[in-house]
Structures are given as structure tokens and as C-alpha cells.
Please model this.
Amino acid sequence: MRITRTVAGRRRRAAVMATTGLTATALLLTGCSDSGSDSDEADANGNITLTVADFGQFGYKEAGLFAKYHELHPNITVKENTTADEKVYYPKFLQQLNTGSGLADVQGIEVGRIKELVDTKADAFTDLAKVVDTDQWVNWKALQASTDEGKVIGAGTDIGPMSICYRRDLFEQAGLPADREAVAAKVAGGWEDYLKLGEEYKKKAPKGTFFMDSASAMYNGVVSSDSEQYYSKDGKAIYKESAGVKAGWNLAAQAVDKKLTQGLAQFSPPWQAALRKGSIATVACPAWMAAQISTYAGDTFKGKWDIARTPGETAANWGGSFLSVPAKGKHVKEAGELVKWLTAPEQQAAVFKAVGVFPSNKGAYELAEVKSAKLEYFNNAPIGEIYAEEAQIIPAAVLGPKDGIIKDSISTQINNMEQRGTSPDKAWDDATEAIDKVIG
Model:
């Protein structure tokens, strides 16, 4: 199940992100799909099997794309091998790259891993800049997968432009504006305004409800809007001095101190239960989060949720993945053509419609499946319009090889502030100690 693209704690269930009139419904996967073919070469008739290894839910099978590709190329069959948890998938993938054995023809890569592979394993991949027009992606997406020399090791799949998901009914009960444009105006000054809105909410909050689910989620939203996060351009870990990290940490500490958060680790059973109960008023909401909310909140709260643009003038991205072609794969040329096709506008739009992952290909934003997309569950929020606008103004962030570990460690300590009453100073010391043990 692709509920566990878990670098930076990210998990999700899939939901149909439909054009006007269609409902957001959960699509759940269990176990793994077909394993790859044992055959290395084409058979006597020229037929080959391409293997795709990925994690969670990339949505290709749900969108019928592998079957369609076979129709277009009768001599090619595509088989997918999906690992539920990216944290299980990635170490095995690294081992396969190191040995040059067991690799699929196409391999998925989580954004939190891409910089490490660009820096240390670029020679192990085919240069997709020779296969795919990288100008078709939002500009910062291609940069994430590029070496200094211009080699591109991954073709962009989805991205996670930010928004705020909120409960209209709870806002109304608390005396706050519920219209999505009015909510966006209330937080137009940035995440500081988001906390001010939380203080307004708290004054008249319906009994048993909290303004936000998790201060660590808000922290990720703040940091994700900064071009310099955990590493400098010269590859130095700067998370201790980073202005974005400091801002995110301080705002998270304020949210905890002001008791604006329910203190739930996202995607945990208590978090899922809180959505079912209806105790959460807002969630920092990358594009893929809407599917999580609709799945766990259920039919009871259909139409009561809505989506507003992210706080402030700077857009943010949280999440995303790539498709790569290992240089030692069995069918490198054919795999490159498959990746080119899967990441083209029409196919990314089809995946968006099927499972709700937002395209990184700008051409998809002009297609009806994306441009006119609305979410009935979220009061018909125009998600195609909201996320396409955000995606194209997101700053190009500097990535580092251990971004995921740094973000996870900081998020854990924010959760400790919420759940255990750990002081901000102690929590920061614990976070930096854990990070330094890993990255040196």
C-alpha cells in the first residue's frame, strides 16, 4: 500500500481526485503486486518484460497505464513489484545498486533520497536528460534529480504543493470565516498568521476540538517553503543555522505552548481516530494529504472539509518521487521509453485522476483531468487550480543526502514537546544529538 512514502514521516492512502462531479473515494492496496520476469532477453518473437520496482502507490496500475502500454507496444509486458514501505524498499535498492544485481528495469526514488543518489550513485543510472525533455517539469523538480554536470538520474512523477485543509463547520462554530478565499486571506501574512488564526479559534473552539493536529506537520510546511533548508549549496549541513529551520522550530514551539495542537503524530492510530472523531480543525496539507483525510475522516465529514491556499506568499512543496533507469538494468533503452511515456502529461493526468497524486509535468496542468479537478469531499475545492498555481512558484530548494533523517529527527522531538512536555531547549538538544550521530 502506498500509505508509506515515509521519508520525513510521509504516509498516505490513495483517493480518487476527480474532475467536477466525481467523489473522492479510497483506493487501498494490500501486499505486493506481481514480481518481475525472470527472463533477461526477448523471446523468439521479440517479446520482452519490463520490470518496475516502486513503493507505496504510484498509481500506474490503478490508472490502467501498464495495460495501455502493452496495447501500444504488444511486444512489451510491464510487471510491477511494489514494496509497501519506502524504508524497507530503499536499503534493498541501495544494495542492488552496489552489487549491480537484482535491479528492476525501472526503479522509483523518493525525493528524500534523490540527493544522496545524485551525489554518490549517479554513475549507476542512465542519463534521462538524453531521453526525456526535462523542461516539461516544474523547474525545481528537474534540478532535484540533476548532477552539477547536468546528468538527470530521475524523471519527475508527483509533487506535494502545500495548502491548508480545514473544517468549515468547526470554523463557523468558532465564529471564524469558512469561505476558502476568506481563510486564505486570514493567513496571507504567513505561518505566523496561521498561529494567530489558531488563537482566534481556541477562544470559541467547539468542545473537544483542536486547531491543528500536529505542530511537526506545521513545521514541515514552514521549512518546505524555504529554498535553503538543511544543507547549503556547497553540501554542508546547516540545519542548526538555517533560517527556515529556526522559523519552523520556533513556530512549532509556540503552537505547543499556546496549546493549539492535539499533539498527534501524523498517520498514527490516534491521528486516524481523531479524524474519525472530528476533533481536528486544520491540517498542513500537501496535495497527497487530502486522500489521507478523506479516508480516515470518512463519510461523516464529507463536505465539511475544505482546502485553502498555503499561508504566506511563498509556496511550499512536501514530498514527491522519481522514476529512474539503472544503467545495469536488463532493457535500458526500452525502460527509458517507458519512463518517458509514464511521465508525459497525459499519463500523469490519468494517475492524478485515479489516485490523487499531483503531477510534476506542467503540461498536465492544462488537461481537463487536472485543470478542472475538484474534490467533492472537500466542498468541491478546485484542487487542480490551487495546486497548479502553487507548484509553479515553489522555490528551488537545496537538497542534501540526509534530509529525511534530519527532518524525521526534528519531527520526533516536536512530537515529544507535544506529548511528553519536553522543553524546547531539551527537545532541540536531543534532536541535534540524534542527527549528529548519523551525519557526523
User: Anything to note?
Assistant: The first helix runs from residue 65 to 72. Residues 1-39 have pLDDT under 50 and may be disordered. Residues 413 and 429 are 9 Å apart (CA to CA).
